[in-house]
């Protein structure tokens, strides 16, 4: 949960998640959408899916136990070198060094590592492993991560006593970058890829009872989440594409009711997504809905998991309604 999300956001969600899924077996047995609902708002939903897949693998192992071997740990979906080393060292006191972004920064400064060695590559892992205290691997790994998080900060590392309560750094006497007065040079910056712009239209379509039409998303982003109808915007001709394409025939969008409520922006990894949000009415024919579609009240929507994109779109809808009075 902490991989891309702030501690304050995660703290209450973590407790609730563990209460809902106290064991790997419980997580493995849960439906994917139930897990996603407990993940809602944390973003990067692929993590939740991988966690559930990983739990299935662990639950099927003898005794439902997490493996003690790093290769077997890394074979679990969602477990990479960092997580494997963290779990094995912290939970089982096994001698595997962790290299996350914080540790990589400390190592880059301790040894003046030049690119490509400033990232958690083979050299950084080798150095981290060589430094590891085999008698206390879990404590050592956590100390290295904390050193990076609290003292060896990305800007303004507290190498010497600073009066901020963060310094002095306990390894300053071994640090080459500090000795050379070049902590600002390490880790060497790498250029960020140019963000990819994506345009799409999001349709908040409600039936006569005010229920929102959601579909199991088959858009390239947030796959398999329940979301309002989203369609890529490939041709920017105002009005010409305002009826969402590829809806089953039983849903009849009341074209005269469609209006643009606003625009929202959202960033997913390297993609900057701009969405035009439309509101409108939809009639649904009789009989059960196709399996990929639901008509839900706002309360039911919360149970499906509300992504940040949906939250932003609903805020645009409310703001537009307020403007109209
Ligand atoms: S001396 Fe400074 S640059 Fe070196 S590891 Fe410590 S905080 Fe980081």
Structure characterization notes:
There is one protein chain. It is built from 12 helices and 6 strands. The protein is an alpha+beta fold and 325 residues long. It folds into 2 domains: 7-185, Hypothetical protein, domain 2 (Endonuclease III, domain 1), CATH 1.10.340.30; 196-324, Nucleoside Triphosphate Pyrophosphohydrolase, CATH 3.90.79.10. β4 (251-268) and β5 (271-284) form a beta hairpin. Iron/sulfur cluster binds next to α7 and α10.
Whole-number count of domains? 2
Helix content: 25-40%
The total count of helices amounts to: 12
| Structural class based on helices, strands and sheet pairing | alpha+beta
Mean pLDDT: 88
CATH class of the largest domain: Mainly Alpha
State which percent range the strand residues make up: 15-25%
Low-pLDDT sequence parts: none
- In CATH, what is the homologous superfamily of the largest domain? Hypothetical protein, domain 2
- The whole-angstrom Rg is 25 Å
Q: Give the number of DSSP strands.
A: 6
Biggest sheet overview = 6 strands, mixed
The end-to-end distance, rounded to whole angstroms, is 40 Å
How are the strands ordered across the major sheet? 4-5-1-3-2-6
Series of secondary-structure elements, N-terminal to C-terminal: HHHHHHHHHHEEEEEEHH
Morphology call: elongated
Named once each, the bound ligands are: iron/sulfur cluster
Which CATH architecture of the largest domain is right? Orthogonal Bundle
Q: Fill in the CATH topology of the largest domain.
A: Endonuclease III, domain 1
């Amino acid at each position: 949960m902490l991989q891309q999300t702030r501690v304050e956001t995660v703290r209450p969600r973590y407790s609730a998640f563990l209460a809902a899924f106290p064991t790997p077996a419980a997580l493995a047995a849960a439906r994917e959408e139930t897990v996603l609902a407990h993940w809602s708002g944390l973003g990067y939903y692929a993590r939740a899916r991988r966690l559930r897949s990983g739990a299935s693998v662990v639950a099927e192992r003898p005794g439902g136990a997490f493996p003690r071997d790093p290769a077997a740990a890394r074979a679990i979906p969602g477990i990479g070198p960092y997580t494997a080393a963290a779990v094995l060292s912290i939970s089982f006191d096994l001698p595997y060094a962790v290299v996350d972004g914080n540790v990589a920064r400390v190592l880059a400064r301790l040894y003046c590592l030049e690119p490509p060695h400033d990232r958690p590559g083979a050299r950084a892992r080798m150095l981290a492993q060589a430094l590891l205290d085999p008698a206390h691997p879990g404590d050592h790994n956590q100390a290295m991560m904390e050193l990076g998080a609290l003292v060896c900060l990305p800007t303004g590392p507290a190498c010497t006593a600073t009066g901020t309560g963060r310094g002095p750094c306990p390894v300053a006497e071994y640090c080459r970058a500090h000795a050379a007065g070049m902590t600002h040079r390490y880790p060497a910056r790498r250029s960020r890829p140019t963000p990819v712009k994506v345009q799409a239209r999001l349709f908040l379509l409600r039936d006569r009872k005010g229920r929102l039409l959601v579909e199991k998303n088959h858009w390239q982003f947030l796959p398999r989440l329940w979301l309002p109808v989203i369609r890529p915007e490939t041709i920017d001709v105002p009005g010409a594409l305002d009826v969402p394409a590829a809806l089953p025939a039983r849903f009849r969008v009341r074209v005269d009711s469609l209006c643009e409520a606003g625009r929202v922006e959202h960033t997913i990894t390297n993609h900057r997504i701009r969405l035009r949000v439309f509101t409108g009415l939809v009639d649904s024919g009789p009989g059960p809905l196709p399996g990929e579609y639901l008509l839900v009240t706002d309360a039911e929507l919360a149970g499906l998991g509300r992504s940040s994109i949906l939250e932003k779109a609903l805020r645009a809808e409310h703001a537009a309604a307020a403007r109209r009075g």
